[in-house]
Each structure stands twice: as C-alpha cells, then as structure tokens.
Amino acid sequence: MRIVIALGGNALLRRGDRPDAAVQESNIDRVTSAIAALAHDHEIVVTHGNGPQIGLLAAESAADPVLSAPYPLDLLGAQTQGLIGTLLVRSLHDALPGHRTIALVTHTLVRSDDPAFEHPTKFVGQVYPYDIASALARRRGWHIAADTTGWRRVVPSPAPERILETETVHELLAGGALVVCAGGGGVPVTADPDTGALTGVEAVVDKDLTAALLAEELKADFLLILTDVPCVYADFGTPGQRPVLGATPADLRGRSFPEGSMGPKAEAAARFVERTGGLAAIGALDAAYEMVHGTSGTLVRPDLPVM
Asked: What does the pLDDT read at residue 123?
C-alpha cells in the first residue's frame, strides 16, 4: 500500500517547546518510530508542517541588521525543507537500516490571483501576548491573529494547484526509496503564463491540502494526517465535545472546524477520499500504525452512492 503521511507542524516542536535545534533533535525519534512502523510493509511518502520553523527564521531575518530586507517566505520555506528533511532522513537512516531515504526540495504551483493573498490566515512562528504581537506587527508590517493561547503572525496561504516534482517522487518510489517532500506545503511559486518561468511568492501553502494533492497525484491508497489530538472532535472545546471515529467527506463538510487548525485537515481528508476513493485518517502521531489498521483516530471513507 502507498501511504502519504502528513506530519503536523508541532511534530518536532510541541506547544511550549523552546525552538532550539537540540529540542527538535530530541523529538525526532518519536516521529521516525511512527513512520518506521509503517515503512516495513508499505511505500511511504512523508510531508511535514513548518510553522514554528519558518516563523523563527522569518523573525531572525527581520531582526538581522546586516540585511537590507528580510528573506522572503519562499526562500525561508526552502530552508525549512532542508532543516526538517535532514533531521528526518538521519533518524530514519538509523531506524530503517538498509532502507533508502531521501529529502527532496519541492515546489508547489499557486495562482497569482488567489484571494488568499488578500486575507492572511496561516499561522507561523511562536505565540505572543497581544501587546508584544501588536508591537511586532506595527514594527515589521505583520498581520496577526488570535491563536488558542495567544497571538501569532498570519501569512497568505494560497491553494496548491500542482506539485512540480511529482514525477521525480514517482521515480524515487519506484526505486524503493522513502521520500520526504512537500515540506511546509512546498515552496510556493507562480508560473509566467507565456514562458513558464517560476517566481517565488510571499506565502506558506497549507501542508495538509498539499499532502492531499500529492497523495492524489501519486495515486496513493491512504492519506494519514498526524496531529496532536487523538481524533477529530465534534463541538471541540465545548462541554458537549465528543470524538468522531468514522466519517465520510460529506460528514466532515457538514461540521464546523477552526480554520487555522482542524479545518484544513478535515478538508484535506475529504478531498483525497472524494477524488480518489481511497482512505484517510486523522489522529495522533503515536498511533499512526493503529490508524492505518482502523483501530485509532478518525477514519474517513468514501460516501456511499445514492441508490
């Protein structure tokens, strides 16, 4: 079975962790243990979030007095693909002796007229108290929004149209490699309509929606979305909160989820299942093996045809 695994942005940096390299290195074994348990029997493609990492690099770049202007988000996204990719490849090399593993810098085509450029929604970087976040926003020209425990920077998140390196990933899988790609949703680029020339854009593509598109393009059997909760919850955060253990795309679309967290995950799972007839699951990193075998998480199956 071919499985695309989408790791949440907090897989290497949990909420409250200092964004130190040592912290991410100490968290990586937990991540690769979950992947390795599946890699023995299945073809695996891994994607990952990069919100904490790209936010850190963006803040450092904005504060660097040597630079005449901060580095753009597309180049910072490429840096996070290398950073997180090498951590995953090194750890997977040790967890899966003899198994070929590669991290691939990947580009995602977006539309230059996507309305998301006018309405930033994607959280990046650390959580701040409101007074600090608002001061940074004024000084650095950021947009900010309330997150669960404070305020964070938000950036545009255009819809992924195509992953440019899909054929290369196909070839690597055919050669028996485990592929890490499309990190942070892929480096966002637009293409000139006449020449096809690529231009990086100031955005971060949602990694779950990119994972769904990648899984579709790769003809994957299963999309596994790993996060920091055990499953999807109906009425999350209310006294009536209850787990949703099984769902169809229609079920997920009939519920309301937070736009900055579970919303894209639910939409990604619904899109993949709807377009391919495959299966998707949303749940906790440590239960990845159990999710594929239907004993944990929220399993998303195709809608039954109307008779």
From this structure: 85
Euclidean distance between CA atoms 253 and 263, whole angstroms: 9
Per-residue pLDDT, 304 = 67
Whole-number Å distance between alpha carbons of 119 and 9: 21
At 238 the pLDDT is: 79
Residues paired with 103 in a beta bridge? 180
Q: Does 49 participate in catalysis according to the annotation?
A: no
Listed in order, the ranges of the chain carrying CATH 3.40.1160.10 are 2-111+159-300
Q: Which amino acid is at 1?
A: M
Helix (H, G, I), strand (E, B) or coil at 58: helix
> What CA–CA distance (Å, rounded) separates 207 from 212?
9
pLDDT of residue 140: 86
- The reply to whether 27 belongs to the active site is no
Query: Which residue among 27, 85, 265, 278 is the active-site one?
Result: 265
The alpha carbon of 227 is separated from its chain's Cα centroid by a whole number of angstroms, namely 10
CA–CA dist 140, 271 (Å, integer): 36
Taking 50 as the pLDDT cut, the residues of the chain under it are 306-307
Would you call 219 a catalytic residue per the annotation? Answer: no
Q: Tell me if residue 10 is catalytic.
A: yes
- As to burial, measured by CB atoms within 10 angstroms (0-12 exposed, 13-18 middle, 19+ buried), residue 104 is middle
Residue 47, CA distances (Å) to 5, 121, 134, 223, 252 in order: 6, 20, 32, 11, 22
> What is the end-to-end Cα distance of the chain in Å, rounded?
30
Catalytic residue among 27, 122, 185, 186: 122
CATH architecture, domain defined by 2-111+159-300: 3-Layer(aba) Sandwich (3.40)
SS3 53: helix
Q: Which is catalytic among the residues 50, 85, 186, 207?
A: 207
Q: Is 50 helix (H, G, I), strand (E, B) or coil?
A: coil
